[in-house]
Design brief:
pyridoxal phosphate; Aspartate Aminotransferase, domain 2; alpha/beta; PyrdxlP-dep_Trfase_small; five-stranded antiparallel β-sheet; seven-stranded mixed β-sheet; aminotransferase; binds pyridoxal-5'-phosphate; 13 helices; 16 strands; 438 residues; transferase; transaminase activity
Length: 438
Amino acid sequence: NTTTTSLNARTTALDRAHVFHSWSAQAAVKPLVIAGGLGCRVWDHDGRTYLDFSSQLVNVNIGHQHPKVVKAITDQAALLTTISPATANLARGEAARRIVARAPEGFNRVFFTNGGADAIENAIRLARLHTGRDKILSTYRSYHGNTGAAIVATGDWRRVPNEYARGHVHFFGPFLYRSEFWATTPEQECERALQHLEHVIVGEGSASIAAVLLETIPGTAGVMLPPPGYLPGVRELCDRYGIMLILDEVMCGFGRTGRWFAFEGYGVVPDLITFAKGVNSGYVPTGGVLISDPIAADFDETVFPGGLTYSGHPLAMASIVGALDAMSAEGIVQNAARIGRDVLGPALAALQAKHAIIGEVRGEGVFWALDLVADPVTRQPVGAAVMARIKAELLGRGLLPFLIDNRIHVVPPCVVTNEEVAEGIAIIDEVLALDLLA
Ligand code: PLP
């Protein structure tokens, strides 16, 4: 059909002529054309469909085009598309109430942002103002966003060309499979990672440190579940030295792990929580900071020195209300937990038993990574050429993957069904059976 074929071609031509892409050398960009989606599937203008095992950038937790979220947005658009953050707006209040209702006790206020990175900026600002201290400790092997402080807090290559913010210190978090601490058990990794953090705190001068900033489960860096005891140990160090604990739940929050917040599974409560992505599945850009009562109280009489034109934008707020209500009514978080425990986790373990290229399988809920290695003994990561081949082979079979470094992140929407998992796993199985290391 020439009409639809030309829409694909036109989309590509316009993109290549005028759109400047993130994190890319522009000449090398070859974007997939996506025209529509529903649930766990997306398609181009030719009707070629893909099973979405990426949730885009791990944000479409509720699946594509959930009718209740689309309706919440269109109803709000018909009523009032935009209004200043200085006004009181019903959708904004209802969104904040629903987020607070899912948070631990002692969190009653939400500052809304445009996305995850500016949630991090504002959490850092709040911690600095609350403590009167400056330094922010975060880990190598992390991603916190692409704005002033958030990108410098980030622990991957993207920080290095962007180091314009001050007061950032990095340390190593636990990661047993590629241990920085010569550990061979989770207990050793946990103990040594905590000792390392305490040494960094003391070495930097504990009275100069405003916050420790951690992804509860580092996502982009490889879905590295913290060993039991690590996060409570960090909490204890923070308490001992008067340091705020910021947990970044932008990727792991709102259902991804099979819980509303990932930290619920790790026996820890932070002082500040950042969120974005899953809160409304990214249908309209938004994010925010959940602020614990003692920090919020600082600004009862003192001006909070921060704001955004679109903080609490009505379309975003309506989408949060629609998404959270649908997630609760339809048991979507429970589905993520069930899929991880009973379907996806066992299926990935079976893949690992079959394919030597899978060095480790890590994850929970619908938040998994396959760590691919050229040699299971040395754990040497597979190279970029192997990953490029895997990407092409998966896409060619209709699976939209999320690949980073030497890993396949298996991160479908929280609504994924048993049948869709089986379909996706069969494709990964077929691709990993190819002679990839030749
Ligand atoms: N924090 C984490 C843990 C993330 O994964 C991301 C994005 O991937 C961000 C922050 C930044 O969010 P955004 O891209 O919405 O600014």
